[in-house]
Write a structure and sequence with these properties.
Number of strands of chain A: 17
CATH class of the largest domain in chain A: Alpha Beta
Shape of chain A: globular
Oligomer: homodimer
Structural class of chain A: alpha+beta
Number of domains of chain A: 2
Largest sheet of chain A: 6 strands, mixed
Chain lengths: ~375, ~375
């Protein structure tokens, strides 16, 4: 049975008037063909081009992979897998040449031609050239594919639930690890290990771990050697990627006494979280939701400088976004990260983010960690 | 003064008969324009295309960057920087559209046209299409650029020396962290933190941390939840990326008594390291060096299943490779990773890798950590 995500990819191609779709961004490749590749060490030195997913209007799937990704490709539902050697002791041809041969093999075997929907920002020229040489016409798929990906399938919701669980452990590890005199990187190492130990594997982790009034006011940043001190706010925004999907989460802690004015920011953010829990449901637009959350913060005399949230899936930030004026309607089956916050110069920043599943009548909070301002209070409670 | 790497990029373009070069793979972008981007969380959700470096025959440099990479782009020697917003609260246009506008602006401002040398495996179709619309002819630069990158500039050597220093600390942390009952991931967290603490920042780290007879026989792998046990060989191959350049290194340890036959593998690899130190010099080919190292291992009755080494720079594996028959001549100013090893089924694997700078008459070992088989012996010695 063809995976629902593959069928939606085929539908996106059809909506573009295309006979085929070729996906080249890793998040779209995973979505279309459920084949994963290592993303956390950059472009592989053993790849002559990206991992390619080719999807036909009828749901046929082809994959072009180097030998490092071969096992993942063979385990996927792909009907045809073309593999080239990324690293070989005896073969001294250019890896680009070997990629090209495998790609041409896949195009020929599957009979790719006619109108082909592609990702303009990542489709390599070598593939575009091969398609044009075959007389194909290229059109762009991103807009339609984005639309298809906005609601999640049951399988996706389970994967996202697992990622939320990983962030619960990461946030608990952060609570346990933070103390005056440790560096952000020391805390980060324990947070990351907590999530990786649960997964039993290395995980790419995006997000922020940043401390101090100035840094938290500036919303985020990767951890550094900065030493955490008494009175520091700490924003811990964790976005691990596991089994092709991303999690996300944010907590804000204070070591010791909060700086003057910080309580206001915290209460404003908490009020917006409460509003989210009460108001997130199908039938209102993302823009309306943004207004509700922004107003909740402003009613406490604070201001949120950034967006209030976004979709999540095989990408860490997906459509629709929770921003002013966004007309996309909230629908059942969407999984949204809502991250209302409040930021003030000289005071710092607070951001409280959970993962929410939109249900038929309201929502379910998928994250399982508590938002806690006081570290001492949180530790006393556990 | 134009950076030597930029001039070499321009030379590579000239060798292809091109007026301009456009670089799109992050390692080449860094090489050509010294602008860095985050690679360890995959393709950015806030990018409409890759960070672009545009280099003219005369050494003019243009960069197209999203606002996250803007600071790095402004600090670089680029003559022209086109920036687009990757994430904006109010702008709801597609990020791809904003990338396209910035890219068109750069092409127009710089007057890019004629013959343009590109990276076929990573140049996005949207850029190829814009160039072709301007009447440009595209040719491939990778082969010529690879040739230019084989020897390193003085600045590159200093950066690689720093990366070697980071691996020294990582290998020392591994020696200190390994013990029976700990998982590979627990050791990995300490190894990674040792390198990140020195850098004061998160680092992408490629390589292997794998334990046990079966896993080390299979050369490598990312760390897992596997518990390290008495008698386990451990391969620790660390490749961190810092300030645009990669380090690399490999040590092999045994917890407690080595498995039967393991000493032979270790002595064979050590003999090959000794051969490398004595024989690596300008004027022989990479293939001849490969034979020398392979023979040293085989004279001890063992066999190396993989390559004996590779170049390193802004990419973790660069040309030339130390493989059978490779005709590239060893030249002064090359920085090579040599990683002779020996692998036997039922016994395990050993790999001993250092970074070497080829000098006028021989070589200098840039790595500063010792290869140590016995953990107990190594700890007694420190």
């Amino acid at each position: 049975m063809t995976d629902e995500r593959t069928l939606r990819t085929a539908e996106a191609a059809a909506a573009c008037g295309a006979d085929w779709a070729i996906l080249t961004a890793p998040d779209s490749v995973y979505y279309a063909a459920q084949v994963d590749t290592i993303i956390e060490t950059g472009t592989s030195a053993f790849a002559g081009g990206p991992l390619l997913a080719i999807v036909g209007r009828d749901g046929t799937v082809g994959v072009v992979a180097n030998n490092i990704d071969e096992a993942a490709a063979r385990q996927s539902p792909a009907d045809h897998v073309s593999v080239y050697k990324g690293l070989d002791l005896r073969d001294r041809t250019l890896v680009e040449t070997r990629f090209r041969a495998a790609m041409e093999d896949a195009l020929t075997t599957l009979g790719v031609g006619g109108v082909v929907a592609v990702q303009a920002g990542s489709l390599p020229w070598v593939v575009a050239d091969a398609l044009e040489t075959r007389g194909a016409t290229l059109v762009e798929i991103d807009d339609e594919l984005t639309r298809q990906r906005m609601t999640k399938t049951a399988d996706e919701i389970e994967r996202l639930r697992w990622c939320a669980h990983l962030t619960d452990l990461g946030q608990a590890a952060c609570l346990a690890a933070v103390r005056s005199g440790r560096t952000e990187l020391e805390v980060w190492a324990e947070v990351r290990l907590a999530m990786e130990a649960e997964e039993g594997a290395r995980l790419p982790v995006a997000g922020d771990l940043t401390s101090g009034i100035e840094n938290t006011f500036h919303v985020g940043g990767f951890p550094t050697g900065r030493e955490i001190r008494e009175g520091d706010p700490i924003i811990c925004d964790l976005a691990p990627r596991a089994r092709g999907y991303w999690g996300d989460s944010c907590n804000t802690l204070v070591v010791g006494e909060p700086p003057p004015g910080f309580d206001t920011l915290y209460r404003a953010s908490e009020a917006a979280v409460q509003t989210a829990v009460e108001q997130l449901r199908p039938g209102i637009t993302m823009g309306e939701l943004d207004t509700l959350l922004r107003d909740a913060v402003e009613q406490h005399g604070a201001v949120n400088l950034i967006h209030n949230g976004h979709g999540i899936g095989t990408g860490p930030h997906e459509s629709p976004r929770v921003v002013p004026g966004e007309p996309a309607m909230i629908r059942e089956g969407m999984v949204l990260m809502l991250e209302p916050g409040a930021y003030a110069p000289g005071v710092g920043g607070v951001r409280l983010e959970w993962m929410y599943l939109v249900t038929a009548t309201g929502n379910e909070v998928m994250s399982g960690f508590p938002h806690v301002q006081s570290l001492a209070g949180a530790r006393a409670a556990t």
